[in-house]
C-alpha cells in the first residue's frame, strides 16, 4: 500500500524537478533570442539535489544513474501528463509561415490540445543550433540506451522517410504510474497487451504432481531465486543468454497451467497468460508487431510469460511453397529472437512436444513432462478435491474409482464439481456413488469413451 507520506515525498521531488525544468526552458528561450542570460548553456542550470530522499522518483533516478540529459528527458515526457501548460510556449506561431516553429518539433494529439514533445523538441532545448551537441545527444534515442532497453521511454513510429526525431516521446505507463501514484498498475487486457494475469486461490498442497515432474520444476524455482546472483555477481551474463525458457508438455488437465500460476504465487511474480488468438494475425507483419508489444511491456518486469496451447505459434516451420509459408517462417524466426532476448521466465505449454519446432526445443533450459497421473496420484487428487463440508456415501470407494478410471486432474475436478452440484440440488451434502459415476461418464463422453 502506498502511504500518504510516500506520495508527499514523490510530489515534492517532482515539483523540484519541474522548477528546474522550467528554468532550463527559460534559459533556452533567452539564449535563442540572443539576450543576456545568467547561463552560457542550458547544462549550467543546476539540477536539484535530492539528498537521499525516499521518493520513488529519486530511487528511480539513482538506480539508473541518470544524469542531466536523462532527467530532463524524463520531465519532458512527463510534463504533458501533469503540467501540460508548461509547454504552451512552443505553440507560438511563426508570423511569416503561420505555423509552429519547425525547430521546436512537437505535435498535437488526437484529443490532447496541448503540445506533445518529440525527440526534436528535446534536441532543440538541450542543443539549440549547435550541431556537434545535437550529434552527441543522439545516443539518448538509441535502442541501446537504457530508456529503450528497459522500456522507460519510446519514440512513436514515424512514416518511412521522415526524420526519426519527429516521433513523440512516450513515457511508459508503468513509469507514469510510479511517478504519479507511487505504485505500478498491472496492465489491463487489451489489443496493446493481449494477456491476462494468471492467478489461483489454490496452494502447493493442493497440487498433485508426478515426482519426476516436481523434481524438474524445482530447477525453475532455483533459477528464479538465484538468477540475479548468477548473472551479475558471478559474471555469467557475459557467457549465458538472458532469461529462462521451459516447455511444459503433456495431456490436458495434468497441471501445466496450475503449476505456472502457483510458481508465480510462491515466488511473488506476476504470471501473464498470453492470448494467442489475439496475438496471431493472418495479416503480414501483424503477428510480429503484436509479439513486440507483449515483450516490450514485459521486459525488465520479472514477469512470467505463459503461452498456453502454444502449437499455433511455436509449431514446426514448413517448407517454403508460397508467400504464406515464407512469412509464417519469418514469424517463428522473430519469435525465436525475442524469446532469446527476454530476460525473464517464459513457459510454453503444449499437449504434444512433437508439435513444437526443433529450433525452439534447443533453446529450452528445461523440458518438463506432465504425464497422466498414476492410480495413487489420482487417488490423492480425488481425496484433496472434495470440500470438508461434504460427506461421501459409505458405498463410495475412491481407491477403486482411482484405480479403474484413468482421468487427469482437470477432468477429476470436473467430476467432483458435478457430484457436488447434484448433492446441492437434493439439498444435501452427501455425495453418492451415482453422482460420481454419472460425472465420470460425462467426462468420458467428451472424448468418445465409455465408463
Question: How would you characterize this protein structure?
Answer:
With 451 residues, the protein is an alpha/beta fold. It contains 18 helices and 10 strands. The strands form 3 sheets. Strands 3-5-6-7-4-8 form a 6-stranded mixed β-sheet, with helices on one face. A two-stranded antiparallel sheet has the order 1-2. A two-stranded parallel sheet has the order 9-10.
List the helices and strands and how they pair.
Elements: H1 4-32, H2 56-63, H3 68-82, H4 119-127, H5 131-137, H6 146-149, E1 153-155, E2 169-171, H7 173-181, E3 195-197, H8 211-233, E4 244-249, H9 256-267, E5 271-274, H10 276-279, H11 286-298, E6 304-307, H12 311-314, H13 323-341, E7 345-350, H14 358-361, E8 366-369, H15 375-385, E9 391-392, H16 398-404, H17 409-425, E10 430-431, H18 433-446
Parallel strand pairs: 4-7, 4-8, 5-6, 6-7, 9-10
Antiparallel strand pairs: 1-2, 3-5
Amino acid at each position: 500500500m502506498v502511504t500518504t507520506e510516500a506520495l508527499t515525498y514523490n510530489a515534492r521531488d517532482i515539483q523540484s524537478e519541474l522548477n528546474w525544468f522550467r528554468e532550463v526552458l527559460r534559459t533556452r528561450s533567452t539564449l535563442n533570442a540572443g539576450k543576456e542570460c545568467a547561463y552560457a548553456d542550458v547544462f549550467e542550470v543546476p539540477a536539484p539535489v535530492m539528498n537521499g530522499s525516499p521518493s520513488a522518483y529519486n530511487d528511480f533516478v539513482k538506480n539508473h544513474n541518470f544524469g542531466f540529459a536523462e532527467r530532463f528527458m524524463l520531465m519532458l515526457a512527463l510534463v504533458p501528463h501533469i503540467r501540460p501548460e508548461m509547454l504552451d510556449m512552443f505553440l507560438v506561431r511563426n508570423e511569416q509561415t503561420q505555423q509552429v516553429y519547425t525547430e521546436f518539433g512537437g505535435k498535437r494529439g488526437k484529443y490532447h490540445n496541448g503540445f506533445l514533445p518529440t525527440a526534436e523538441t528535446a534536441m532543440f532545448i538541450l542543443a539549440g543550433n549547435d550541431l556537434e551537441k545535437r550529434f552527441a545527444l543522439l545516443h539518448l534515442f538509441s535502442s541501446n540506451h537504457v530508456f529503450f532497453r528497459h522500456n522507460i521511454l519510446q519514440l512513436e513510429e514515424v512514416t518511412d522517410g521522415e526524420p526519426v526525431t519527429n516521433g513523440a516521446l512516450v513515457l511508459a505507463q508503468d513509469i507514469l504510474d510510479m511517478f504519479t501514484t507511487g505504485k505500478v498498475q498491472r496492465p489491463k487486457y487489451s489489443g496493446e497487451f493481449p494477456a491476462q494475469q494468471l492467478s489461483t486461490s489454490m496452494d502447493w498442497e493442493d497440487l498433485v504432481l508426478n515426482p519426476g515432474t516436481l523434481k524438474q520444476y524445482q530447477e525453475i524455482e532455483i533459477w528464479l531465486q538465484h538468477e540475479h546472483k548468477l548473472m551479475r555477481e558471478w559474471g555469467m551474463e557475459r557467457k549465458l543468454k538472458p532469461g529462462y525458457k521451459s516447455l511444459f508438455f503433456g495431456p490436458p488437465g495434468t497441471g501445466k497451467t496450475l503449476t505456472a500460476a502457483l510458481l508465480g504465487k510462491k515466488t511473488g511474480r506476476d504470471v501473464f497468460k498470453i492470448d494467442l488468438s489475439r496475438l496471431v494475425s493472418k495479416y503480414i507483419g501483424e503477428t510480429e508487431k503484436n509479439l513486440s508489444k507483449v515483450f516490450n511491456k514485459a521486459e525488465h518486469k520479472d514477469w512470467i510469460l505463459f503461452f498456453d496451447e502454444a502449437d499455433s505459434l511455436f509449431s514446426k516451420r514448413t517448407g517454403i511453397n508460397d508467400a504464406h509459408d515464407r512469412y509464417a517462417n519469418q514469424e517463428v524466426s522473430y519469435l525465436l529472437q525475442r524469446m532469446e532476448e527476454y530476460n525473464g521466465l517464459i513457459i510454453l505449454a503444449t499437449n504434444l512436444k512433437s508439435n513444437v519446432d526443433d529450433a525452439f526445443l534447443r533453446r529450452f533450459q528445461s523440458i518438463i513432462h506432465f504425464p497422466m497421473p498414476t492410480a495413487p496420484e489420482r487417488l490423492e487428487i480425488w481425496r484433496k478435491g472434495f470440500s470438508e463440508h461434504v460427506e461421501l456415501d459409505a458405498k463410495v470407494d475412491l481407491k477403486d474409482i482411482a484405480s479403474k478410471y484413468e482421468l487427469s486432474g482437470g477432468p477429476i475436478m470436473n467430476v467432483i464439481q458435478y457430484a457436488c452440484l447434484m448433492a446441492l440440488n437434493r439439498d444435501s451434502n452427501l455425495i453418492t456413488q451415482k453422482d460420481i459415476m454419472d460425472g465420470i461418464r460425462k467426462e468420458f463422453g467428451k472424448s468418445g469413451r465409455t465408463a
